[in-house]
Amino acid sequence: MSSLTAAQRQRTNMIEGQLRPNKVTDPLLLDVVAEVPREEFVPEEFKAVAYVDEAIDIGNGRSLMEPMVLVRLIQALEIKQGEVVLDIGAGTGYAAALLSRLAGTVVVVEEIPALSYIAMAQLQKLGRDNVAVITNPLAAGYAKQGPYDAILVEGGVQHMPEELLAQIAEGGRLVAVEYGKGTMGQAKLWQRVGGVVSSRPLFDAGVDMLPGFAARPGFVF
Questions:
Q1: Domain span at residue 66?
Q2: What is the spatial order of strands in the sheet that 84-88 belongs to?
Q3: Number of domains in the chain
Q4: Distance (Å, whole) CA 63 – CA 55
Q5: In this structure, are residues 116 and 138 in contact, taking their beta carbons and an 8 Å threshold?
Q6: String of DSSP letters for 68-98
Q7: pTM
Q8: Three-state secondary structure call for residue 168
């Protein structure tokens, strides 16, 4: 008889059924996903479906991103041991828990106090003492601790603020799902090389929009 708990079996099924078939190949990242209890970061009524391949409502108009999209975004950052990472729109802290096992320091920005509190409590419960949770407008990031080696934006954006791009360190990376004129979002990677920030597409993805990242209004003539 297997000694795995139901949650551990669900976690294994998520990895084998959702992540590996969708180009998640980093062995360290997969090990981290296998260790972090996603069910601890969703409301009680959704714990039984914590590992489904879709976004989960966490209240306050926000959601926990679909596992496949989130983990592919993290993989694209290629986080190295000791790096400083900024997590924008952390919600209840699930992605921050993953990042804390990959990076040296994680700065979490969440603008909804109720979600900041949950994230802080869950991360402390898991003993993640290399994570700082900051309540701040999402689009502003947290320049005080920047620049950052890697930035994860946990949701959809129509416009990437210059204020946030300025917080990417030389050689640093930022990932987000950008929405243009079409209905399908596109995961993108921004990088700063030689002081210049450029971006390239990664894969198509559908995620919920984050507050503060709406397209800027055009000129009216």
A1: 6-205
A2: 131-135, 105-110, 84-88, 148-157, 168-178, 185-193, 196-205
A3: 1
A4: 6
A5: no
A6: HHHHHHHHHH---TT-EEEEES-TTSHHHHH
A7: 0.94
A8: strand
Query: What H or E segment, with its residue span, contains residue 189?
Result: strand 185-193
pLDDT score at 221: 39
Residue 217 lies in a domain: no
pLDDT confidence of 7, banded at 50, 70, 90? confident
Q: What are phi and psi of 170, to 5 degrees?
A: -60, 125
**pLDDT at residue 67 tops 60:** yes
Closest CA to 87 of 47, 115, 55, 57: 115
Per-residue pLDDT of 100-147, as tens digits, reads 999 999 999 999 999 999 999 999 999 999 999 999 999 999 999 999
Separation between Cα atoms, residue 160 and residue 202, nearest integer Å: 16
Q: What is the pLDDT of residue 2?
A: 53
What does the pLDDT average to over 155-183?
92
CATH at 116: 3.40.50.150
- Indicate the length of the chain as a whole number: 221
Q: What value does the mean pLDDT take over residues 165-177?
A: 97
Which two tokens mark 155? 């949701």
